[in-house]
Design goal:
Blueprint (H helix, E strand, L loop, with lengths): L2 H13 L4 H8 L12 H18 L5 H10 L6 H10 L29 E10 L5 E9 L5 E7 L4 H15 L4 E4 L8 H9 L3 E4 L9 H15 L7 H17 L5
Helix pairs in contact: 1-2, 3-4
GO molecular function, one term: nucleic acid binding
InterPro entries: HTH-like_dom, Integrase_cat-core, RNaseH-like_sf, RNaseH_sf, Transpos_IS3
GO biological process, one term: DNA integration
Length: 257
């Protein structure tokens, strides 16, 4: 039994009417220890308070990412101490369902070699509280992992996909490859002709192999886990504003592993 545990037992015995001398003798502790105040709880209290506040703000972040935010607030905490305080505070991230992993030896076609070498895009679906559907087109630079755009609408057809991509090309320059699955919007004649006119090469993944578009799939998982599942949109207009704020936070503030 630790010294602190024995002191607690001695204090309990004293509260039940046993003299200090007798209680300390039975528990083999010094009487002066009864009046000692632990310093670590006082030192750790501000850190735990900041952890609880940040955990409430970012419920899907674990101790590693919360530690980055603590450093930004001027609270320099070591990795082991951060993990200890995280456990003591009873904080934890709800576990996600484990997914079967694909062997790492399998390579994707057209690996990114630099900024603007490969853009990947896909759709994510959700709904608002008023029943409006949300269809989100996400575009990610596979080399920098930056989310270039999230277009939110009720319906997004090939013409709107072209509009979003054209705007990004005018702002950031054209990529060499565009990677996507075989959805009807991505294999439409209109979009493929636009890609030819812009001298862009399209890379369509093989059916049944979503890992070939793994960068965008990974981003979409974070997007759903940290934004769509955490927010309750009243309407589509509110969803556009909140999702764009989250995209900026993801690119500029969120710690990345």
């Amino acid at each position: 039994m630790s010294v602190q545990a024995r002191l607690e037992q001695a204090r309990y015995a004293i509260s039940r009417g046993v003299s200090q001398r007798r209680a300390c003798t039975l528990m083999d502790v010094s009487r002066s220890g009864l009046y000692y105040t632990l310093r670590m709880p006082v030192k750790d209290a501000p850190v735990i308070g900041a952890m609880q506040r940040l955990s409430g703000q970012y419920p899907r972040f674990g101790s590693r990412r919360i530690r980055v935010f603590l450093g930004r607030e001027g609270l320099q905490v070591g990795q082991e101490r951060c993990s200890r305080l995280w456990r003591e505070a009873g904080l934890q991230v709800p576990a996600k369902r484990k997914r079967r992993r694909v062997a790492g030896s399998q390579s994707r076609p057209c690996e990114p070699t630099g900024r603007n070498s490969v853009w990947s895009y896909d759709f994510v679906y959700d709904a608002c509280a008023n029943g409006q559907t949300l269809k989100c087109l996400t575009v990610v630079d596979e080399y920098t992992r930056e989310c270039l755009a999230i277009d939110v609408a009720g319906s997004i057809r090939a013409s709107r996909v072209i509009e979003v991509l054209s705007r990004l090309v005018s702002l950031r320059g054209a990529p060499r490859y565009l990677r996507s699955d075989n959805g009807p919007e991505f294999v439409s004649t209109q979009l493929l002709q636009w890609a030819v006119d812009e001298k862009l090469e399209t890379v369509l993944i093989e059916p049944g192999k979503p890992w070939q578009n793994g960068t965008n799939e990974s981003f979409n998982g974070k997007f759903r886990d940290e934004c769509l599942s955490m927010e309750w949109f009243r309407n589509r207009l509110e969803a556009r504003v909140i999702i764009e704020d989250w995209r900026r936070h993801y690119n500029e503030i969120r710690p990345h592993s």
